[in-house]
């Protein structure tokens, strides 16, 4: 029961900083999109586990845009924070900044929203603690999370309808 | 110019099969969502480069749902295919199947849509060859790609509006 | 018992596609031979586990030739297929193609033959299902597998004899 | 010249958070000491490059103690901050916390002090900007860095002397 | 010219020791065959580069047998030594020992023979220094290398003939 | 009891050779300090486990100096040897040599001293076998290990005192 006590967003927020090494890049020295997605997922998973005190697995990732190229030698900062807790799932927002440490310029390159589900060792969903929001910023995130959830459901309906009208699945 | 000759979807399609090793899992032996996203991105990048004969970078990834858990020892098959070519960008669809080789069950666990941009060595966008679609299935994918593109633009507008109404960015 | 029902080669065949990243290359941008061998082994292991529905471990790898260099940014396709099932072991063939996606040239760079053994959790060998071959191509592979097995045994005898004539082991 | 303007510790400080995955552990599920040292080095390198706006390489690492075991599934937070800038080198302090996200306990497991040197593309040392310290805490760290530097020099002398007295080098 | 001065086997021999970590194993905790092949290739590449003072790439790997299982936590020792230098190629032998450090038992698990070619930055073959053998053991290895080379050529002929008799290539 | 029989340094010594690959370097092609520390830790862990026949974890690492840069394509040799066994801990010395295989120059770049503790599966310390030293070199190392241990304790006292005089911990 104490595990279902409401928690604040800052109780579980994570800052993760990574240096882009040759291992992470393509032949032109650009950070691979998939490598960044991997970091985004790890940062969000840590927030989900901290908030819920349970092992959490990725259930979905909303659209991610990569506005700015990230290059070999850049520093990538990921700021991950819980936006809303539903019954057994949580929405986590991750903000990605890239910085060229050689000239200290820093820009926002992506934002991502991920949904995680808390599970037991058999993979069955577990209840998660509610989220207590206070500041205007936290409330805005909390409300946007519900809108995104609704949009996700609408989107899935649209895809299903398109599939039903068309031939077979993608 | 010959590089801008129309090509067929099957000219660039990719099948990628991966074995889930301890390296790819969390403490309960579940495949990490971010690891799967990394494979999805690599599979799609190979399609984009094959179709365009150019280096391509990830511009955006649509919502990805992880319907079914994938575990240590499973075989993951990724089928990646180009859905549509725009002026300098391409939409690639990736279908993910997971199979437990010890009982030969195979299920569809995720579908993903990614947009790539072809670039030169300075990162400037380059024109890509048009896509020639023939079968009903190929035409359905071609049309759906335009709908998804429109939805992406609407979604970005909605996010911008929410942000403008609210305080500061996520 | 149903696990020992005969299966067809196409029931377990695998296509694996990999993009050569900086991580996989030496200081001149050539794919490391050992990295390719690792991919060959994984592709073959997936075929062996799919055919047998059991965990399989590598027992031997026949001579592998690397006819053509593979470079950073190339796409490597591995086609793995079972050639023959013996009592507790299987021979898998892997064909390696490399393609420069920037000019769509594709060449055959290596072929490899690997033997796997199906094992239980104590490492003891387990019986594997027989292989049912139909096409001429499948029959040719089936017959060649027996020749290669014989050659392997002869080769081991020759090595043993050389050692016995000489001083101590390599 | 503007690159040699004094900077504050907070201008370059880094927080790095890592999830301990199977890849990072030994056969009992303990984080490998060397893996933690690798993270410590990366976190410190990012601070050194941010402060100096130059590529920096590790010159030395002071004694590191691992007071508490870190296990699979734990969250490791590394807080890295510059303590002092010398002519071409910098001392960076890294504080390591480990947390079990399943019960939110957090403990301090190690502290490390690393010296980095800023270099040009030929490996020659470059001048670094001075550090401007204000708070008592920053001043304490600044003074301790000088003491550690002195101790390092004494330590090297002692080792040299021991070697000279003894036979050949370690 | 001084680079083509004869060298002794011991001038370039390598001992490489690796600890089997979770990253290197399958779901039963067995070292992956491909991971071991990767280590074998790296060990041999270092010998080839040391002997030739040139960048070398893998040209072929003879049959490798995995006589004994290697498990998580074992220590793997690879002893690599040049057996013979031909005009632009070298044969390297690698002997693999595995040891359970918890009971100090050590067994020979595999031997491998690899051929490397020295190349320039355009991938063209370069002459390598001759090998000077003295001991009986070195002479035995030198002679066996010629036999293996001959067998490799015969083997390729047999494969070609089988292919010509049959339908298309594997 | 037989596990606590005295052993000689050479019974557990390890030689580990690594090729510096792109994966291991920063954007100027320098080996990352943290990567080298990782190798040092693995080499020393193997010695500790061989001497004690038990799983061992890193307890502390003494100051490490990186005297010479190590570059992409270099060969790194790590020679690890036990210097002294205490009740439940051991001091291991690791000597690092780097060699450019293209010109066969070899230099000593670092020396490191690490302390390991033997543990059971609950993480509790276990007694380790005594070390039997014979040669002058072994005796010198044995005596130096005691001096280093004393210096470590003094150093910790100094740090504690500085902390007590100052405000809060680093």
Assembly context of the chains: homohexamer
Indicate the CATH class of chain A: Alpha Beta
Helix percent of chain A reads 25-40%
Structural domain tally of chain A: 1
Element-by-element helix/strand order of chain A: EHEEEEEH
User: Which stretches of chain A are poorly predicted, pLDDT < 50 over at least 5 residues?
Assistant: 166-170
Largest protein-protein interface: A-B, 52 and 52 residues
Number of helices of chain A: 2
- Spatially, the strands of the biggest sheet of chain A line up as 1-4-5-6-2
| CATH homology-level superfamily of chain A | Hotdog Thioesterase
Distance between the termini of chain A: 43 Å
What keywords describe this structure?
homohexamer; 170 residues; alpha+beta; Thiol Ester Dehydrase, Chain A; 2 helices; 6 strands; 30% strand; globular
Fold and architecture overview:
6 copies of one chain form a homohexamer. With 170 residues, chain A is of the alpha+beta class. Helices cover 29% and strands 30% of the residues of chain A. The first copy, chain A, has 2 helices and 6 strands; from the N terminus they run E-H-E-E-E-E-E-H. The first copy, chain A, has helices at 33-52, 136-165; strands at 14-19, 56-61, 64-65, 75-85, 89-100, 105-118. In chain A, a hairpin with a 4-residue loop joins strand 5 (89-100) and strand 6. The relative contact order of chain A is 0.19. At the A-B interface, helix 1, strand 2, strand 3, strand 6 and helix 2 of A face helix 1, strand 2, strand 3, strand 6 and helix 2 of B.
